[in-house]
Amino acid sequence: MDYHQPVLVQEVMVALDVKSGGRYIDATLGDGGHTLELLKRGGVVLGIDVNEGSINRARGRIQGAGLAGNFTYCRGNFKNIAELARDRGFNQVNGIVFDLGTSMTQLKDDRLGLNFTSEHELDMRLDDRDSVKAFDLINGLYENELAELFWEYGEEKMAKSFAREIVKARELERITTAKQLSDVAKKSFPGYEKGRLHPATRIFLALRIAVNNELENLKSALPRAGCLLVPGGRMAVISFHSLEDRIVKEFVQDTQPTKDGLLLTELTKKPIEPSNIELARNPSSRSAKMRVVVRAHRS
């Protein structure tokens, strides 16, 4: 099976200072790339993911490697990381990793509607138990609401223009597939970014973030995750765009000591980025940035 290639794997292991017998949480299990490396180093790991397909792939991969004995999994949203962890005996852990990138496996899955050529319904839900689909937003929001969404979540400078063209197109027929939406963007703005970027890129990003409530979930998850760390425990967060990285930065800067005298401090003066070797091997890692925090006693 062809698995998603995670980024900064060795850097995460170093950042978390992985020890044999230590307890760790992979808050974004995906295809299990980071978890597999944690297990190989003797870690006991809880893997969390909202997507059932991801969990099944990771389970099969880990079982195939003979490392299932120290692996626990659960389906759930990382915004509920505290409850999910405590219910499975991971109430105090040595390390946590968040990889906020979208799995290439999911991008290639036409059923999710995350790629530009998918003829399936414009869905974009990573958790199929959620109710709102990208289809609902594209066909249901007013023009000004679409423009606001594209600007706020996609940082699309031409948000108003894209929203106007989408509304024109849906007046002729509902936009039901990812390919229809990408075609509208491409036909409307053929010279977009001088051909360096597909016109629909930031539109798809904005929709995916909105449908899965990604930014709010991250804001909720980070402080709850921090409270699970033992003193000296570390948390690594890999972001892929400025909105995510801003949330992580603000979380670290705003962290206040808890009532038991513990607080989080950042270990990375500047974000850790992929090496030239990794960039050559995996070009999609180019926008990855990792920040690392440690929980320690207040001096």
Strand neighbour order, sheet with most strands: 3-2-1-4-5-7-6
SS-based class: alpha/beta
Q: What is the succession of H and E elements? A: HEHEHEHEHHHHHHHEHEHE
CATH class of the largest domain: Alpha Beta
Q: What is the second-level CATH architecture of the largest domain?
A: 3-Layer(aba) Sandwich
Biggest sheet record: 7 strands, mixed
Q: Number of folding domains?
A: 2
Mean pLDDT: 92
Family: Belongs to the methyltransferase superfamily. RsmH family.
InterPro entries: RsmH, SAM-dep_MeTrfase_MraW_recog, SAM-dependent_MTases_sf
Catalytic activity: cytidine(1402) in 16S rRNA + S-adenosyl-L-methionine = N(4)-methylcytidine(1402) in 16S rRNA + S-adenosyl-L-homocysteine + H(+)
GO molecular function: rRNA (cytosine-N4-)-methyltransferase activity
